[in-house]
Amino acid sequence: MTAKIISGKEVAAQIREEIKEATEKLTNENSIVPGLVTILVGDDPASRSYVTAKQRTSKELGFYSVQDSQEADITEEVLLALVDKYNNDPKIHGILVQLPLPKHINETKVLLAIDPNKDVDGFHPINVGKLMIGEANFLPCTPAGIQQLLMRSGTQIEGAEVVVVGRSNIVGKPIANILIQKQDGANATVTVCHTRTRDMAAHTKRADILIVAAGVPNAVTADMVKEGAVVIDVGVNRVGEKPSKKDPNRMVAILKGDVDFDGVKEKASAITPVPGGVGPMTITMLMLNTLKAARLANGLEA
Asked: Which residues form the catalytic set?
């Protein structure tokens, strides 16, 4: 058996087309343009790259898009005032503060200052609490993307044994909460493994759906996977560099997932690649949350 490849690029493209059509309809029928601001503090190259990609995507979808770049020495007080300004800007429906922030700024304090109704990352405690009780407005973007990959690939989630490797607040905990809900695209039996799990393989070998977000290259190998399982690899690990195919004089990162892809693909029924799997879904779900925020802010159903 060779696993079917679940392409995050293809699924993300489908969802973005749906968002674009919904945005055009919202603009034409209700004169509402979804608005997203990304706040970048300092000039970290990786953060700038992420923000640029988010801005480019939002513009392609027809959003009102604002990039607010601030110097690295901005005070916490001024940054909090900036967040408050966008909280009160009716043209802005989603606020994203790019992390990490400089060490002199309390990240938690800044994230808590974002209006929960504009928290399109889905990390505000109010939105986390709503997720916990099954009433979320905004799902955290990477876990939401995982759920969409499973649903749109035809994976049977209801009643499935799901094992999540990793318990981070960004992926592990929220995806477990999402898939355990009494809702469509969920109703699974979920186990969460982590660094203190005594016999991880005993759990992973039971999984119909295995979601790996450990942050360790090749943390899951073929002997840890049940025959026919669906495997979602969330990890993106830089393990070296190689010359670019387009420009041999330029070096590009070699990326590996948390799953031994070559070994596991011969045993799984379906698997996500790295890169090109979960990664493309994250920005797409951010855009979907921004569209939802715009609808909710104007009294429309999400």
From this structure: 54, 98, 121
